[in-house]
Specification:
The chain is mainly alpha-helical. The protein contains eight helices and no strands. It is globular, with a radius of gyration of 17 Å.
Length: 143
Amino acid sequence: MAPPGFKTAAAQEPPSARTVMDPFHVVALTAGRLDECRRRIQRQTTRGRGRKDDPLYQARRTLRTGANPLADAQAAPAQAARLEDLFAHDHHAPLKATWCIYQRLIQAYRAADRGLGRFLMDQAITSLTQPVPAGLEEVAVPN
């Protein structure tokens, strides 16, 4: 598959150009991986798509919520309990690991101090370049 046009143009024309991503797209891409992990586990455990009564399907929006708003919102106890129930099952461990990575990226971008945010993001990226255990293919960085 050929790279997108803008990436090809940036690599060919200005030799000093670098590929950068803004916070919105980094978080959006990570949220997409979180959704992929949730759907994969849903298919493995129920042999099908999520239905309205399935816990993984019900938690899809809660999983995309940042951890801090969960602590502050009025609906936080129900959402926190839903996550706790989800993560209590051993077969949901890959989902919990992916969710934790998603939360680390959000925390890095929400840091008030840019230096702290950069440090947190560097740690998150470094941890993603390490080999990941089986079952976490959504967070594996392609070579």
